[in-house]
Structure formats: structure tokens, C-alpha cells
């Protein structure tokens, strides 16, 4: 079944990169002239989406997305990003429910559900993130927490939009800490998530995120239910991002 699902390497640049660094990234990517056999996506901060779309166009194979969007299309929401505007700009995907949005900005499953449904209404692909904290894992609550995140966050998901949804499993304790979940730990949760999906069980891409690097991605991608990676730190430099994509292209 894994071959039904293209491998995705998604760079989440978070609140990083200057214009100079972005130019360097694309100069390096263009020099490498790599034929990508995996899907390579990047989510820069909102301010850089338009310029990245132009630069990505020249490399031909990188899709550009957003790291977050509002739960409605327009209105008096200072500082928010409209999913309608994202779709209008030709943005391909949006990350919703990243653990940094959940923990730092207090976004709850109910709000995330509104965001997911509204992004889908605008035909954006959605990477919906789930994952447990260290305290939840140690209390043996991993599956309970993730089930709740899936049940509430994907409530009322229209069957005809399910093909636009990807899931990212990101154990919070592995994000930016250098502690990657073992391939076995990740696969156990990915298989659980797949079992809980109501629509498109076999077709839905499930990414792993949390300290993914060129030297640990191979064993993760070899697992049946791990279809790619959501990568923070190691997506910022073209050399690492390219290496991740090269490894993903031969799995
Ligand atoms: O969205 C990406 C994740 O938060 C992982 O970040 P990281 O690769 O820097 O641990």
C-alpha cells in the first residue's frame, strides 16, 4: 500500500531565513540540478511566501505553503493570514495545528477543526499536525491524546476533500531537541493514526516530524506507514534539504 503514497519532504522554515539566506538556498538548489523523485515542499514565514513562489518556480519542483492560517476567510483579525488569500496567491498547502501553535499560542483542537475545514473549503492541501508531549508519553497517554486530536481536529471532514489532507505526527519531545523518535516508536503511532482515519485510510500521507536529519531519515522512511518528513532545522540549508530529498527519492 505504501506505493500508493508519494514520499513528501516538507521543510517548515518556522520564523527563520532572511532574503539573503533564501536567495542562497535557491542558488544552491538550482546548481544541484537534482531531479526530485519525491515531493519537495517548503513552508516559509508568511511574509516570504510570494518571493518563494517566484524562486521555486525557477527550480520547477518545489511547492510552497503556509505555516498557519485563520479559521475564516476575511475580517477584522489583525496579524492573521487568510486561507482565501493563500489560495488566491496559488499557495498549495498549509500546516495546521503545529505543536508550536498549540502550545505557544494556545490553539485548541476545536479551533484547529475550523481552520482545517476552512482551508479545505478553499481547496488548500492541509498538513494537520498531532503529537504528544513528554509528560503525556510518560503517562502512557500518547494514543489517547492523538485520538482526541484526530477526532476533534478532523471532525466533519468532507469525504470529497479527504484527499487534500496529510497528517504529521510530531512528538513534541522530539522537536528541535535532537531526540528523534526511533523508527519503531514512530511507526507504532503512524499505524495507530492510519487505523483511526475515517476516509482514505490507505491513501493518506502520514509524515513524521521531530529532529529529522540526513543521517536518520532512511530508517524512518523504510517503515510501512511513514510517508515522509516534516523537517524544521535540517530544511534551512539547501545541502541538507537536498540530501533529505535524495534519500527519499530512492526509498
Ligand atoms: O515542523 C517541524 C518540526 O517542528 C520539527 O522541527 P525539527 O526538525 O527542527 O526538530
Automatic annotation (TrEMBL):
The keyword RNA-binding does not apply. It catalyses: D-glyceraldehyde 3-phosphate = dihydroxyacetone phosphate. PROSITE patterns: TIM_1, TIM_2. It is an enzyme of class 5 (isomerase). The active site is at residues 98, 170. It comes from the Bacteria. Its EC number is 5.3.1.1. GO terms for molecular function: triose-phosphate isomerase activity. Belongs to the triosephosphate isomerase family. Keywords: Cytoplasm, Gluconeogenesis, Glycolysis, Isomerase. This is Triosephosphate isomerase. The keyword Isomerase applies. It comes from Bacteriovorax antarcticus. CDD domains: TIM (cd00311). It is found in: Cytoplasm. Gene3D superfamilies: Aldolase class I. Substrate binds at residues 12-14, 176, 211, 232-233. Homodimer. Involved in the gluconeogenesis. Catalyzes stereospecifically the conversion of dihydroxyacetone phosphate (DHAP) to D-glyceraldehyde-3-phosphate (G3P). Pathway: Carbohydrate degradation; glycolysis; D-glyceraldehyde 3-phosphate from glycerone phosphate: step 1/1; Carbohydrate biosynthesis; gluconeogenesis.
